[in-house]
Specification:
mainly alpha; single chain
């Protein structure tokens, strides 16, 4: 079984350079991509679209959600990236925030 990690190819290294450590958020980003994205690339971790989506989601997941307003804003931004309604995320019990 493969260990969960942030994407490990050359393009990903270039994109992730200087972005901080996204490893703690990779599992959640992969969960969101697998559950809410219907694109052909969602199972190909070497596809540039997957890498870009993973990086974007990790950036939003990294943001603290310390109160109801910040959680709502975080859900809204993540839903916008996934092109879904924020209500779907609000009702998802598997989200870590």
């Amino acid at each position: 079984m493969n260990k969960m990690s942030v994407n490990d190819n050359r393009i990903a290294h270039a994109l992730y350079q200087g972005k901080g450590d996204h490893l703690p958020y990779a599992a959640s980003a992969h969960y969101l991509i697998n559950k809410y994205i219907s694109a052909y690339w969602k199972h190909d971790k070497n596809d540039l679209d997957f890498i870009s989506m993973e990086l974007t989601l990790c950036g939003y997941l990294e943001m603290p959600a310390t109160c109801a307003i910040s959680r709502k804003l975080k859900l809204k931004w993540i839903a916008r990236v996934l092109n879904i309604s924020p209500i779907l995320l609000h009702n998802d019990p598997s989200l870590p925030f």
